[in-house]
Amino acid sequence: MGPRKKTSKLQSSVGSIVEEHALTSFERKDYINELSHEVLCHIFRYLPMKDIMCMECLSRKLREAVSLYLRVIKIVDLCAGRWWEYMPSGFTDRSFLILLKKMPDLEQLYGLHPRYLERRRVRGYEAFSIPGVLEALQACPNLLGLETSHLELVEAIWNYMPQVHILGKFRNRNGAFPIPAENKLTIPVTAKLQTLHLVGVNVPEIPCVSMLRHLYLKWVRLTKPQPFKDFLCVNLRSFVMRNCAGPTNSLKYVPLVTGLASARNLEQLELVRVPFLGGLIQHVVEDSWRSGGFRNLHTIVFGACKNALEVDLGYLIITAARRLHELRIQPSLTKDGVFSALKMAELEFPQFETLHLGYVDDFLLQCKMSHLELVKYGLADVIENPGIITDIGIKVVNEVFTNIKYLLIYNCPHLHNPHQWITDHSRWSRLVDLTLVRCHAIRLESFCHFVELLPCLEFICLDQMFREPPKGCARVGLSAGTGIGVSSALVSNQNASNDNNQHHHPNEANMPPAPPPVNNINNNQRQQEHDDLSKARPRVAVRRKRMADKSTSTSDPVTEDDHIQVLSLKSKNLVGITLTNCGITDLVLKDCPKMMFIHATRCRVLKQLKIERAPIVNRFDFAQCKKLDMDQVLDQILRMPPERNRIIYMRPMQQIDSIALERQLFQGPYPYHIAVVHEFSNPPNIHNKVRIRSWMDTIANICQELIKYEFFPETTRKDDVNMYPKYPWGRDIYTLEGIVDGAPYSMITDFPWLRTLRAADPNSYARCDFEDDESTTIYAPRRKGQLSADICMETIGEEISECRQSKKGVFQRVVVLFLHHCDMPGEPVDDDYI
User: Fold this and answer.
1) Is residue 478 over pLDDT 80?
2) Angle at 635 between CA 631 and CA 639, to 5 degrees
3) Where are the beta strands (DSSP E) in 411-546?
4) What is the DSSP letter of 24?
5) Rounded distance, CA 817 to CA 646, Å?
6) pLDDT digit string (tens) for 583-614?
7) DSSP 829
């Protein structure tokens, strides 16, 4: 073998130049222009129209491909499938005409939702107007249909292009109440559309539209004296009429009901505040049921219908028994007699699932206008009283509807003992979701027993239930206000006060004031404050906090503690409970093996939580619960066996001693990695809360993988809190701070791996399809491609090695305490999220 030939410097430099030139030419090569027109047109099918039009100015090849694509396209969507958005702005009559002239074969135009249209053209002024849109549409000879939401535009199309179909669902976007005078629409008999949703519109009449299948009228003013005289929609499947301003004479609704009976395929009937003639539906059903009238109904809703009778509702239910799914009954028809009559009919409802008793429309519940104002704006004059159904009637409900799954009862004050609703013939064996609102007379003990007897119950929602007894009744002796026994009550109360004072520590009055909740201090200062606080507060015997309402200058001088009301839950299938404005003081989870969440909002006297057996509950929300004993609730949650990661959301209404709180959590015998997040956004922002739930499990999964497969030491915490007397109490505690949407947040935690993951560079799995990063939230794993525990472990390999060498252990589970301080002054802040 001969000697190796040496390469000269000239040859190497020439070779590098040639290689660099080849690389540059490779990078500059335009592969898009090398594609054929057919391939480019195929690619355009997957792009929004806005992007396709932008390609016209990039190159001659792309301009030719775009022109070819537009010549053959038959379906165009100007909103790229986002029907709720508006079409691109910047169109004028001229530019829109030029665009549609490029589409001679256009058949269906979707997304024609202009933000604003001029009513008429103005000479010398380039604008986007209704006449201009009509001219452009008429330039498409093969146009069959279009989708729009503009009232004046659709009326112009019906007048000048009657052969064009209105595709999809026509729903105007400028609806409001009171009904704006400029919102007008005249529906012609020849209108070609299948779905019409009108909100806040003035309509002369509802004519006979043969193609119409779904008609939704909300806040619609019917201006003609006889708006239903020609109403006949034989293909109608859904009819909804809510809070419309129509004729006050009940006889004028006769053509409406007879027209609905002629729609043999009608499936949904909702009448809210429709003053039809009492007994009318009964007679129409008698005349039409043999020919199929109302036989296919699966949803029946009666709400605030002034003249509706029990026979009207009963005849509809009996006729639709075979297919009926859902039934919502207004309070005046929520009576024992309705269900007793249905029981005597001996019918079967094989598909029935949802029952709403005492139904009141959401608009009437949320509207701030008075009854007289509503009548002034044309709504029917009707005032609803509470439902008068009793425990006997509810017992019959399940005997009639044996397959009921969802039950909602609103404002029925004659219900007392729910456990009596269950009999041998009424087992409620399929009830999954139970909602009770404003049923004030229901006894708490009976309700707890009722929940225990329901075999399949999963969700409970209680709103304005179990209200607090009036103050003073407990100490008066007899009925409130008699004055008998007041003196003895004063004496006993004074003695109780003296006993309580004897248990107060002498140093308690000299305790330092609670520091502000903002945690803008470094760890050394934090450690010093914890040590000082420990010296200043000697440990004393802990008693149940007394949270009596304070007396004022105008109230009774004797303060009285809240009446104890304990909601005790025992259910093998219960998944979650939601409490709003409830008067309970204690919530006890006795035996709820499948319970996963607890939500409590504005429960003024809720103080304590006791968990006996609920191993997998992992979400706790306590918002605006004024008297909640935070220390007791947190201790109960954190002492649960670490079988799940848990997140606790609280909106306290008083100042919090954040230093003492952190010491309680990090020093306590809690086998979790803990994070305390202080959020100061006002109005409330749930950005960080939602994001934390997306990545806290990943942190725990890393720890579990290390313990299970890498033989990593698992940390334990003992009940002896003196084992870790000083900061950082055997934990690696650090602080993260930032700003989200202009509001600061502070996170104090001992979560492992988090700092390294936040500081890491994005990997090949990174996804930039959303705007979050570490500058707008605590941690954004998707932006870094940290989508699973395995991927994250590749990033933190060095830190794992360091922890292994130092024999530092980890917990398997994590807990996040999210404190929102928007209600700190004591005044609750309105929040749509709760």
Assistant:
1) no
2) 175
3) 433-437, 459-463
4) H
5) 9
6) 999 999 999 999 999 999 999 999 999 999 99
7) P
Query: Cα–Cα distance between 577 and 597 in angstroms, integer?
Result: 7
Task: Give the angle 778-782-784 at the CA atoms, nearest 5°.
Answer: 85
Contact 770, 782 (CB under 8 A): yes
Whole-number pLDDT of residue 7: 45
Q: What is the pLDDT of residue 114?
A: 93
CA distance 271 to 273: 7
Token readout for 220 is 């619609």
Q: Which of 271, 334, 265, 275 is nearest to 297 (CA)?
A: 265
Q: Which two tokens stand for residue 709?
A: 């497969």
466: which 2 tokens? Answer: 């179990």
419 pLDDT above the threshold of 90:
yes
List b or e across 410-436, with b for residues whose CB sees 16 or more CB atoms inside 10 angstroms: bbbebbebbbbbbeeebbbebbbbbbb
If DSSP codes are grouped into helix, strand and coil, which group holds residue 668? coil
Strands 734-740 and 743-749, by their bridges, are antiparallel
Residue whose C-alpha is closest to residue 692's, from 582, 817, 565, 796: 817
**Beta strand ranges found along 72-218 (DSSP E):** 75-77, 108-112, 145-148, 165-171, 193-199, 202-203, 214-218
Q: What is the pLDDT of residue 769?
A: 61
Gap between the terminal Cα atoms of the chain: 85
Rounded distance, CA 684 to CA 831, Å? 7
CB-based contacts of 401: which residues, under 8 Å, 6+ apart?
Answer: 349, 352, 355
719-723: which pairs have CB atoms within 8 A and are 24 or more residues apart?
719/669, 720/669, 721/667, 721/668, 721/669
Amino acid making up residue 319: T
Helix (H) or strand (E) holding 579: strand 576-580
Residue found by looking up tokens 């809070």 in the block: 243
- Tokens 């009108």 appear where? 198
Integer Cα distance of 17 and 13 in angstroms: 6
Length of the chain: 834
Closest CA to 53 of 41, 66, 42: 66
Confidence (pLDDT) at 492: 39
pLDDT, tens digit (0-9, with 9 covering 90-100), for 136-178: 999 999 999 999 999 999 999 999 999 999 999 999 998 999 9
Note every long-range contact of 490-494, with CB atoms under 8 Å and residues 24 or more positions apart, other chains counting.
490/558, 493/558, 493/559, 493/560
Across all residues in the chain, what is the average pLDDT?
Answer: 84
Distances (CA, A) of 355 to 238, 324, 325, 400: 19, 11, 9, 12
Which amino acid, 507?
A: N
The gap from C-alpha 337 to its chain's centroid, in whole angstroms, comes to 36
State yes or no: pLDDT of 505 exceeds 70.
no
- 68-127, pLDDT tens digit by residue? 889 989 999 999 888 888 998 889 999 999 999 999 999 999 999 999 999 988 887 889
Q: Estimate the crossing angle of helix 130-138 against helix 93-101, to 10 degrees.
A: 10
Distance of alpha carbon 565 from alpha carbon 586, whole angstroms: 6
**Ramachandran quadrant class, 131 (left: phi over 0; alpha: psi -120 to 50; beta: rest):** alpha
Alpha helices, H only, 728-810: 754-759, 781-784, 789-795, 797-805
Residue pair 601/621 in contact (Cβ under 8 Å)? The answer is yes
621 token code pair: 């929300």
Q: For residue 93, what are its two tokens? A: 């009559």
Nearest to 476 by CA among 466, 467, 489, 495: 489
CA separation (Å) from 134 to 70, 106, 110, 190, 833? Answer: 20, 15, 15, 18, 43
Could you give the maximum distance between any two Cα atoms of the chain, in Å?
124
Read off the tokens for 649: 């959301």
- Cα–Cα distance for residue pair 629/804, rounded to 1 Å: 40
- Residue 182 C-beta-side C-alpha neighbours within 13 Å: 4
